[in-house]
Amino acid sequence: MRRNEELLERLHQSYHLGVVSNFTGNLERCLEELGVMRYFSVVADSGRVGITKPDPRLFQHALSWPGLVSKPAWMVGDNFESDIRPAAALGLSTAWLAPETEKSRETGIPTVRLQTLSDLAGVLDS
């Protein structure tokens, strides 16, 4: 997370950032301990919400967060089945963080493919 803190700071200036994660109920505390919670407007921790990815309701929970401007919205994830497919089904743009050797399972999904998380800034700026 530390290596991406500069990116989080930059994106936080222009976008609402959130985390949608299958976790154990203490994700916010973990993000606080890492010193990065301040960048996120919403944290959808499956352990607290009671819904796990790929259930689209976890994504909908995050998108309905009070005060969040959710359109257009992007999902950035490394798991095609749990992150990319359900987000795309909800109409979100998707950025799949995956090596070139890993093949997309569906035509037209993801919206973009990233080699590294730092590539996201260029995608969003275009």
In total, how many beta strands?
5
Overall mean pLDDT stands at: 93
Number of domains: 1
| CATH architectural name | 3-Layer(aba) Sandwich
- Within the largest sheet, what's the order of strands? 3-4-5
Helix-strand category: alpha/beta
Major sheet description? 3 strands, parallel
H/E order of the elements?
A: HEHEHHEHEEH
Number of helices in the DSSP assignment: 6
Structure commentary:
It is a single chain. The chain has 126 residues and is of the alpha/beta class. The chain has one domain (2-125): Rossmann fold, CATH 3.40.50. The protein has six helices and five strands, in the order H-E-H-E-H-H-E-H-E-E-H. It has helices at residues 5-14, 27-34, 46-49, 56-63, 80-89, 120-125, and strands at 17-21, 40-45, 74-77, 93-97, 112-114. The strands form two sheets. A three-stranded parallel β-sheet has the order 3-4-5, with helices on one face. A two-stranded parallel sheet has the order 1-2. Helix 5 links the parallel strand 3 (74-77) and strand 4. It starts with a helix and ends with a helix. The model has no long low-confidence stretch (mean pLDDT 93).
